[in-house]
Amino acid sequence: MKWMAILLFGWFLQGCATLDGKPIKPAPSLAIPTQWQAQGRAGVSMGKRNQNIGFVINAKNQDYTLKLSATLGLGQINIKSNTQSLWVDGKIIESNLEQWMSDEFGWYFPIQKLAPILFQHKQSVDDGWQVKITSYQQINGVSYPRIVHLNHLTKAIKIKLLISEVNELK
Known about the structure:
globular
């Protein structure tokens, strides 16, 4: 019995030694870089419907490319946007991203909110969305959001982003 107590106490002490005592301090960048890249996964809930997607975004000023992939990589959509046009899989689309995604998926991703969230840790309630960052991570010595919740204020759209990588490009 004594040996069991000593063994359990030893395991307890070993577990305490592996705890990291330094929490990540969310110190945001002050400026959004002109070129950046981010990737991760998104879980989308629309009432009783749920969907999981992977995403990779490359942005340069107001232009971006967005790659959306289905679970297990079973399908992919490539979106490209600049100030003049929107292309989906190489075909020009006559609407904006919000309208196209609403028509295609029943929900949309507020892509204009992503850069302020990633680089300025902006949590807000505006433009119909509530943004809340619930977890941070260190990437290349810089603090970035890890888990971001976006809830639409008037539509039944909830998006949970799990950010796995962020890079400032030069």
